[in-house]
Design a protein that fits this description.
The protein is an alpha/beta fold and 455 residues long. The chain contains 20 helices and eight strands. The chain has two domains: 6-176 and 334-408, Periplasmic binding protein-like II (D-Maltodextrin-Binding Protein, domain 2, 3-Layer(aba) Sandwich), CATH 3.40.190; 178-331 and 411-452, Periplasmic binding protein-like II (D-Maltodextrin-Binding Protein, domain 2), CATH 3.40.190. Strands 1, 2, 3, 4, 5, 6, 7 and 8 form an eight-stranded mixed beta sheet that branches. Belongs to the bacterial solute-binding protein 1 family.
Length: 455
């Protein structure tokens, strides 16, 4: 019998960071259940360090502080905090919690005071991690990784991509990546085989053409692209040869040609309609208005909850995201939530032990019970999620949860937030045909060069 983890999966769906939407709740500072808080302030922290040394020697509990957002409303942090405390009864975790909207600002104020709290930092987005690294507020982890002979290959290349200036400031924690969703009932009715886990983008285009039918309000589109520029640029960086921060954006041209062709041929809804009507991608798929849709792994929980609540009742499936002709199956694009250590910690060894645990295979299996995807894929974690009630049955759907290579949708660049603006604006201009693709690429080259100082 499948495990009933729909509620946990639903909670996990809203917790995507970096390029994904963030949740909001009241601004609070709290501690984990049955934990003892540290005193705040540099002087108090220094005195406390001595007290904790004495406490450890006498068998009393040590206190480790960690920063989180929306701790009480999501399982992505609490599950690991509680598991670590259970494994280490001599340690109490002090949770410094803030709302998602205020997290970066609150953390920045705390770190600017060079306080010993927090010891461990969950990083909400890549841009803030780079800022903290540039200010010397994050502890480099490389020496500890080397000393413990930590195997970074378990992260499928994500750990190396987290390096900044050849230094590791964080390890992969939570992860979300792109897969292909499809409506099994529509494929069955059309007598067309389901999308496979080894399909090129060209084959995907051909499948979209086959699956387009009907007219007007009864029309079913072969596929659906939401309005995000990532739904074009992601596939251009999927093979790891490029990023969205480049001097020459001509590598984007074939992917914009593909997107415009799908739109012009009527195989997917046009950008202008989606933007003007503010149509959400979830409604398009749930209302069976498209046969396929590339979207993030977080949407799995959304669909499972929709079926659990009776909002939808059609059969759906998931496949690996299609890949370029010269790339093997298993390459995907996504975003991470890293975990790191404050440079001001007075609990370096304990903080490192917690970071290792939080980013381990053991933690991955624990988080899978809550429907949270992590930076490590294990057989147990995949089996756990695939066995959840309302997850599509079949080995192909389970295989779709795996990947072999993981490329960031945005690189670790200090100016990535500035660069997002021209990426978004040029994307819209190309998709509404206000710019030709060549004109759009020229505009990107010019504006990004100005931001980066390449002129």
């Amino acid at each position: 019998m499948k495990l009933k983890r729909v509620a946990a999966l639903t909670l996990a769906a809203g917790m995507v960071c970096t390029s994904l939407a963030a949740c909001g709740s009241k601004d609070t500072a709290t501690k984990a259940p049955e934990t003892t808080a540290k005193e705040e302030g540099t002087t108090a922290a220094g005195a406390e360090s001595k007290e904790e040394t004495t406490a450890a020697a006498s068998g009393e509990k040590q206190v480790l502080s960690v920063t989180t957002w929306d701790y009480d409303t999501t399982p992505q942090f609490s599950a690991v905090v509680k598991a670590y405390e259970a494994k280490n009864p001599n340690v109490e975790i002090k949770v410094i919690d803030t709302s998602a909207d205020e997290y970066n600002n609150s953390l920045g104020i705390s770190l600017s005071a060079a306080q010993a709290d927090p010891d461990v930092i969950w990083v909400k987005d890549m841009g803030s991690m780079l800022q903290m690294a540039d200010k010397g507020q994050l502890l480099p982890l490389d020496e500890m990784i080397k000393a413990d002979n930590l195997d970074l290959s378990v992260y499928s290349g994500a750990a190396e991509q987290l390096m900044y200036n050849d230094t590791t400031y964080g390890l992969p924690y939570r992860s979300d990546w792109y897969v292909l969703y499809y409506n099994k009932d529509l494929f069955d009715a059309a007598g067309v085989e389901y999308p496979s886990n080894d399909m090129t983008w060209k084959e995907y285009d051909e499948l979209a053409a086959k699956m387009t039918s009907g007219e007007g309000s009864a029309k079913v589109y072969g596929t659906h692209d939401h309005t995000w520029q990532a739904l074009v640029t992601n596939w251009a960086v999927q093979d790891g040869k490029h990023t969205v921060v480049e001097k020459d954006y001509s590598f984007l041209k074939p992917y914009y040609e593909e997107a415009l062709a799908l739109q012009e041929n009527g195989y997917m809804q046009d950008y202008s309609t989606l933007k003007t009507a503010n149509i959400h991608y979830s409604s398009v798929f749930k209302n069976q208005q498209c046969a396929m849709m590339p979207m993030g792994s977080w949407f799995i929980a959304t669909m499972m909850q929709a079926q659990a609540e009776g909002e939808t009742d059609f059969n759906w499936g998931v496949a690996r995201i299609p890949h370029p002709e010269d790339t093997e199956s298993g390459y995907t694009v996504g975003a991470l939530t890293p975990i790191g250590i404050s440079a001001y910690t007075d609990q370096k060894d304990l903080a490192w032990d917690f970071v290792k645990f939080a980013s381990s295979e053991e933690a991955a299996n624990i988080l899978a019970e809550q429907g949270v995807f992590t930076g490590i894929q294990t057989d147990e974690s995949i089996n756990t999620i695939a066995s959840a009630e309302y997850f599509p049955e079949g080995d192909s759907n389970k295989e779709a949860l795996t990947y072999t290579h993981y490329a960031f949708d945005r690189p670790l660049d200090p100016q990535i937030e500035e660069i997002r603006k021209p990426l978004d604006e040029v994307h819209e201009m190309i998709m509404i045909k206000a710019y030709s693709i060549d004109d759009g690429i020229a505009e990107l080259n010019k504006r990004v060069a100005e931001i980066k100082g390449w002129n």
